[in-house]
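Thread: quick sanity check before group meeting

JM: Hey all, I'm pulling together slides for Thursday and realized we never actually wrote out the predicted structure for the chain we discussed last week. Dropping the sequence here so it's in one place. If anyone has concerns about the input, flag it before I start.
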Amino acid sequence: MTLPSLYSRIMRRNLRRTRFKIGVALTTIIVILSIIAPLIAPYPSEGYGYVPANASERKLLPPSTQFPFGTDALGRDLFSRVLTGTRTAVIQAVSVILISLLVGMIIGVCAAYFKGLIEVTLNYFTELFMAVPSIVIALFLRLTIGQGLHVVIISLVIAWWAWYSRIAYVYAKSIVELEYVTLAKLSGLSALKIIPRHVIRNIFQALTVQAISDLGSALLEASAINFMGLGLPPGSPEWGVILYEAITERGIEAFLFSPWLVVFPGLFIFMTTLGFSLIADPLREDLDPRLRRRWKLWF
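JM (edit): ok, ran it. Output follows.
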């Protein structure tokens, strides 16, 4: 199934569902903000971490008409910081999922198609990487190559590709044992023709649904890595970094006396993750009708 046909099928089936429409609306808003954030941010340079000249006069101001989200401990406009962070959030989540999906799908399908030593070796490496937490990888990369967006993406990809490899292997294993794949092999078709045409094409929908479901989790893990100071450096336009700066500079006082420092970036993380989840739930129901019955029982 091609990507355009899959998209049209998803939209046709799910646009009548309220959860799906809310999820699409939230996700669309975040994506649009990630594109136009530098244009609509009242203080674009402060969004990227620039400290204003009159910072001492603007420290920890509460939300107002001039500063809708208030200011942080360095006098920067928090609204501009959070808006600019939408682009980093989208780049992190989408990059991690796309790269992990591509690498995992290729390895999982190859393990299912090529049996014997190749299958055993690839499955061994898959199980090995499934046991490694992304935080540990991020810590190792932080100590060896420093900080940056690439550290966040690489650490999550290393930890996530194995899960997609396992899913692709399970689905592809049932496909390669079907008669039409066996007949394709006997007819003399090469693996380069059989795998894309008969294997990947039949597991693409399930992997795509899983990838959409994991976007919210990827965003949460990326924010957690940045919050722990292992990813992007301080001052970067990223929601986890904003929370990290609020806690390190204010401590518990950030919750008690300056709640806007944690409420607004946390709210954007929640809204983005919720949007991805509301889109993914109806898609999972299409793959497993038993989930649809569960929703009817609950609601």
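AS: nice. Residues 191-227 form the longest helix (37 residues). The chain has one domain: 3-298.
JM: adding both to the slides.
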